[in-house]
Amino acid sequence: MELGSWALISDVPSLVGLVPLLLYIILSFVIQDSMILPLAISMILGMIMSGNGAVAFGTNFGAEMGGTMGQIGFLVLLGGGLGGVMNKVGVTTTLCKWIIKGFHIKGKKSAILVLSLCEAVLTLVIGSAVTASAIASPFMIPVAAVFGVRPITMAVILVFPGFVGMLLSPFSAPNITAMELTGMSFGQYLGWAAGPFLVVMAIASVFICFWIEKKFENDPNAERYELTEEEKNYDVEVPPERKRSTIAFIITFIVCVAWVVINGNGMAFTFFYMILLTVIVAVLGKYRLKDAIDTFFQSAASLIQIFVVCILSQMLINTVNAMGGFEALGNLFTNFVNSGSGETLTATVAMLVGAFGINGIASTQMIVIDQLFGTVVNDIGMSQGMWALVLIAGSYLTVVLYPCMTHFSALGLFRSKDMKTLLKACWLGSAVLLVFCFLYFLIVPIFV
Prior knowledge:
3 domains; 22 helices; mainly alpha
């Protein structure tokens, strides 16, 4: 997106460009019963400030439908459709029973731990938290429903344990980028940077999930999943046709995940195997294909709002970028660093520039951070392990601090509208991680 001829901002980059995003954050706390309204109001302001009218809006909306956020929004629809068919056939309740019995889940806290582990492991093998959640949410939600785990807690599980899995994955694009920029092996990268970061993130996420559950424990208006009769009686015998369909789902799922691990192209292939899983579940579950198709689209249609939100959220970020909001904030931080700065100050400022001043895909953010500070880092002799942690924190925290595709996909996949609580949880987790990184930057130079 570019500035229009009648843009209200002429001197770019400008901190004023952040106003639409700040307005959205404020409205998310004020308007809590709608995801679209705060975004739409902020988007309108952004379009006016950037000098873009109806034609520009339509052009950018169409372009983003085929972009990353549009694809994620469509994945959410496919996940909803698959979940609807799995529910009708009974695969979700069967998986729920098996997970509960297999992991010996006894209560809400153990359910949160198991669900967090499932999210992390799936993301580890697939390399994307959103893709993993899109295919796992249909059978994770029933487990959450049985033990009273709330939708907003499940959204937090996608954000933090999902990122833990990404940091552990040698196949994820950000990890590959960070290793290329630092010249570290995966073992060195994990030992010096990703490992300590993900351990703190995992521990913090568990306590945040427990805090959310306690906060809403006695709130009758809080979001919750509705239990079906089968979910209430999860220990009853599973009929043979449901076993057959569920086993087929698991086998197909494992084969597809293995294909992604070997060949890559996770998101692209996911579009195919979400439909493949739907067909297999319907056929082996003896569910008429015509009825399965109707159920698929009815379930997907209930999530159309998320699809639109995904596109509008990326357009809002594009508008802020066009007005130079993130760039201006980054420039404000970079003024504090030069070749005479110490390692702790340089690492801290570089991390803050990445987290607050650069927006985009994590891999791209890492490259930009390296371009901005690489010369200074080499001049002061900063260790590559410490620099790797800067790259991780500077890129991963952005998608936690600012409302973005991570938030919207998490809320959509796990059927929550509580952006306010999700932002609070993300900011709390970010604060813990920022403190950890600062202490790391303070202590490591003493010993290395």
